[in-house]
Amino acid sequence: MLALLRERLPEVLKAMAPLVGAVCVLQVALVQAPLPQFLQFLAGAALAALGMLLLFAGIDLGILPMGRFIGAELPRKGSLWLIAGVAFALGFAVTVAEPDVLILAAQVEATAQGAIAARPLVYVIAAGVGLLGAVALLRIVFGFPFTALVAIAFGLMLLLSFLAPARFVPLAYDAGSVTTGVLTAPVLLALALGLSTVLARRSAATDGFGLLGLASVGPVIAVLLLGWLQR
C-alpha cells in the first residue's frame, strides 16, 4: 500500500502543479486576492491532491482488479441477459456516484431554478451510460463491427439533436462528457478488458476498448430523448 502511494505521489503532484502554478502567477501578477482566500485555495489544493492520491490507490488496488474479474467471469455463466444486466447495473451505479455528473446536475438545477431537478437528471444520465454500456459489451460477445455501432449511435444522436428543444441540446452533450470520470472510466474499461480476454480468438486491444466512448454517447441520447418527450 505504501509503495503504491509513493509510486502515485509524483503523478499526482505533476497533475496538480500546473493548476497551482497558474493560480499563483495570477495571484502575484494580476488578481491579488485577499491572503485568507489565497491560503484557502492552497489548502484546498493540498486536500485535492491527497484525495486524488487515495482515489488512484483505491482504483489500482480494488476497482480495476475486481472489474476485470467480473468481466472474465460473465461469459462462463453462459447468459447474455446476465452480461447485459451486469453491464447496465455497473454503468448505472458508477455514473450515479460520479462526482462530475453530480456537479453538473447540481449546476443545472440551480441555473434552471428548479425546472430541471438534479436527481432525476442524474438517473437519466446513468441510464444512458448503462444502456449503451450493455450494448457495447454485447458487441464484444457477438463481434459486431464497432464502426457500424458507432454510426447508428451517432446517427440517432444527431437526429435527436434536431428534434429536442434547444435548451436540452447543450446540456445533453455536456452530460456525455462528464460521464468519462474517475469512477466510470476504470470500471467500464476493466469490465470490457476482462470480458475480451476470455473470449476465444478475440484481442483485448481490439475489443476491450471503445466501450467507454460508446457509453458516453448514451447520456447524450438519453437527455435529448428526455427533452423531446417533454417538448
Which key features would you list for this structure?
82% helix, single chain, mainly alpha, 2 domains, 231 residues, 11 helices
- Share of helix, binned: over 70%
Structural category is: mainly alpha
**What is the CA-CA span between the terminal residues?**
52 Å
Number of discrete domains: 2
Strand proportion, as a percent range, falls in under 5%
Number of strands: 0
Counted by DSSP, the helix tally is 11
Low-confidence stretches: none
Rg, Å, rounded: 20 Å
Judging from the principal axes of the Cα atoms, what is the shape? flat
Average pLDDT, all residues: 84
Order of helices and strands: HHHHHHHHHHH
Largest sheet: none
What is shown here, in short?
The protein has helices at residues 2-31, 35-73, 80-96, 99-111, 118-142, 146-163, 168-178, 184-198, 204-207, 211-215, 217-229.
Structure notes:
The chain has 2 domains: 62 residues, no CATH class; 152 residues, no CATH class. It contains 11 helices and no strands. It is mainly alpha-helical and 231 residues long. The termini are far apart. It is flat. The protein is 82% helix and 0% strand. The longest helix is centred in the first third of the chain and has 39 residues. Helix 4 packs antiparallel against helix 7.
Describe the secondary structure blueprint for this structure:
Layout: H1 2-31, H2 35-73, H3 80-96, H4 99-111, H5 118-142, H6 146-163, H7 168-178, H8 184-198, H9 204-207, H10 211-215, H11 217-229
Helix pairs in contact: 1-2, 2-8, 3-5, 3-8, 4-5, 4-7, 5-8, 5-11, 6-11, 7-11
